[in-house]
Amino acid sequence: MFELNLKKLAMSAVAFTVLNAGAAAAQEACTNHTVSDGDTLATIAIAAYGTSNYQPIFNANRNIINNPNSLEPGLVLALPCEDGSLPNGRSAQEIISAEEARAASVKRSSVYNPPIKLVTGNGWAPFADESLNGGGAITRLATASLQRGGNDREYSVSFVDDWNSHLETLLPLGAFDISMAWNMPDCTNRTYEWSWETKVRCTEFDTSVPVYDIVVGFYTLPESEYANATTFDELKGATICRMEGWFIHDMEERGLRNGETITLMQPVTARECLDAVLTGTADFATFEVQLFADTMVEMGLNQNDIVENPFVNTMSSLRFIAHRSNPFGRQYLAMTNRGLNEMRESGEWYAIVSDTLREHNEKLMAATN
């Protein structure tokens, strides 16, 4: 069993492992927790794992959590075990092995079909990263989905780090069929003026069902005037940092428009955004909670140096996308949808996600020790 000492656990902002038997944290991890008044996902994560990163708990309970900032007292949450498995459940490896064996036993068609060309970007662990098993969680979910739900399609996977090129050239020109891990806006919402980014995503691309739901937090200094803002309206006038190439439609939907109600900074890395908060150049950094936790560890910061506002966040779903000019795009997306739906029912979806998070955490801890 992978074990950590108290010092290491306190340092880990993504700790998916817990202390050995007898320690207080281990008594809460790998159990079911009944929400009390005042509980938040962050406070539950701190008690169970010594980290404010609550994305693993959110993953395990996505079907019953609608708003991470508003938990109903009495709600029963499953707190994952150190290997990512659920309390009293099979391990991730057991589920994955069983589903792979079942898929291999299915009779395959002898009709040849060309491999589906998949593309994603590198260096976005745990979602898409060549250093992780199968290329990261999103890549593993995509490739597995093409072998589940009655599918039997070969595939190729490429990593192209220029994400904008996926939208502007690679998919429109047919170099690839599906790009993986995109946050898509609600294209039925026309109550605000769409940016160029939103227009392109809504008018030129088809999407899969949601593949992975992420929570996007807003992070600031504890003493900031914005630390306890309770509505998005209270963020107007702030300087907000989110990285170049990242989606901004979630802020636009809530009235936070660059140059009108906020000033938007767009550096290359999450580290630069957190540096901007620390130096006072930005009031907020905002991106998904897993990346925030990882970056805090990499920068050697503790959870009191920069805090998540407990009242404002957004949620977004990572999806697969295909350009509408691709004659097979919708067919390929329908195949991934079938596979993903079966994987959710069998438990393989959660098993792949939790197994990748475990691997990613171990690599991160090894790199920071």
Topology:
Elements: H1 6-11, E1 32-34, H2 41-49, H3 55-60, E2 76-78, H4 92-105, E3 116-120, H5 137-145, E4 155-159, H6 163-170, E5 178-183, H7 196-204, E6 205-207, E7 212-220, E8 239-241, H8 249-252, E9 263-265, H9 270-279, E10 284-288, H10 289-298, E11 307-323, H11 329-346, H12 348-368
Parallel strand pairs: 3-4, 3-5, 8-9, 8-10
Antiparallel strand pairs: 1-2, 5-11, 6-11, 7-10, 7-11
InterPro entries: LysM, LysM_dom_sf
Keywords: Signal
Organism: Aliiroseovarius salicola
Task: Please describe what this structure looks like.
This protein is α/β, with parallel strands linked by helices and 369 residues long. It starts with 5 loop residues before the first helix and ends with a helix. The protein has 3 domains: 6-78, LysM domain (Membrane-bound Lytic Murein Transglycosylase D, Chain A, Roll); 101-212 and 318-368, Periplasmic binding protein-like II (D-Maltodextrin-Binding Protein, domain 2), CATH 3.40.190.10; 213-317, D-Maltodextrin-Binding Protein, domain 2 (3-Layer(aba) Sandwich). The protein has helices spanning 6-11, 41-49, 55-60, 92-105, 137-145, 163-170, 196-204, 249-252, 270-279, 289-298, 329-346, 348-368, and strands spanning 32-34, 76-78, 116-120, 155-159, 178-183, 205-207, 212-220, 239-241, 263-265, 284-288, 307-323. Helix 8 (249-252) links the parallel strand 8 and strand 9. The strands form 2 sheets. Strands 3, 4, 5, 6, 7, 8, 9, 10 and 11 form a 9-stranded mixed sheet that branches. Strands 1-2 form a two-stranded antiparallel ribbon. Keywords: Signal.
